[in-house]
Hints:
6 strands, Rossmann fold, six-stranded mixed beta sheet, alpha/beta, Helicase, Ruva Protein, domain 3, Serine Threonine Protein Phosphatase 5, Tetratricopeptide repeat, 20 helices, 431 residues, disordered N terminus, 51% helix
Amino acid sequence: MGVTPARRYVDRVPVDPAVIDALRAAVEASPSNVEVRAHLASLLVDAAQFPEAWEHARIVLAAQPDHLGALAAAAAAGPHVGEPDQAASYRRLHDALGPRPAPPDDLEPLRMSGAMPSTADELLEQWEHADAITEPEIGSLNRPTITLRDVGGLDEVKERLELSFLAPMRHPELRMQFGKSMRGGLVLWGPPGCGKTYLARAVAGELGASFYEVGLADVLEMWIGSSERNLRAVFDVARANTPCVLFFDEVDALGHKRTQLRGGGGAMRNVVNQFLTELDGASSNNEGVFVLAATNHPWDIDPALLRPGRFDRKLLVLPPDAKARAAILATHLRGRPIQSVDLPKIAAKTEGYSGADLALVCEQATESALTASVRSGGMRPISQADLKAAVASVKPSTGAWFETARNFARYNNDDGDYDDLLPYLDRKRRP
């Protein structure tokens, strides 16, 4: 997604504020997603919001110093925030890392010899043996090697996935006898960092299908019509690689409620409309394409996307239970030196922790053991005390999400959309 700095200095075009707002929300929900943050920085430059663009670009470059898109945004924003020297450095680094531009005089011999085509027929004749143009890749397409057996714990979630989604696909003859339609998609929803993407990848592995993962930054672009064209291309790729699990991350940003889009949000409304068209398969056959999506904010999804035949099934993915937490801890400690570690005991102290929180616990425990080893001059394994100290310093990141979700579950649940969440909230309130 690298963007050359040169593009930033000429003919800046208006950017739909709704696109920027959607990207801001995505960055807030997933701060470590460098691609989304870099895309936001680029659009902020185009919108002349240079201080914010500078901050986002610098955050990306702190994590990934050679990110071309962030280098381009920083190079463009720097002079406007009093950092011309730093911006020049970013520009030189971008130019050194980026692709070499074609020599500007490639066509000069043709002009001088009179060989430049003057008619459409001459042009087509010259291009007859030229290589075909290849479309840029959008998203990530692969064939997973994991299945639900590789997902630790979450037995209730896996059982519901099996009964409502996987079993009908595995038994098409029974599905036909019962008149069960497999049109529509499945939305995995819940707090961030709890394994929704991992579950979606495991579903693809269960089906022996390709897994096509598409993020917000892969689809949204500033140019009018580009986002809709990207969505259409994504579905075309999925249809060409059936059986395929097409997975949309942060679907609330792509399919945001049109009534909430600021200033009418014309561009984003068109994106939602294109999404509806592709899900309906109005112009193409979606047979063999199984559409899954993940969201941390189901209350922001346009209701039209949740109607029958679209994303009409929802599955709540909560923070991992004790069994799953122990499995996650074991996974992140695999291959590291440990001694006298009781993971079930550690897991019991991490109620409400997301998978990402548990990964951070393991990283902090590892840092403690590594520091002790450096000071002693010999290897000191990760101990129970290291893990206990890490748990004490890492707080669950799901608290803010549950505060927001509780309001919707208690006061905006007329359609029963949040019934699955209520029992968990009740258990959390008990001493």
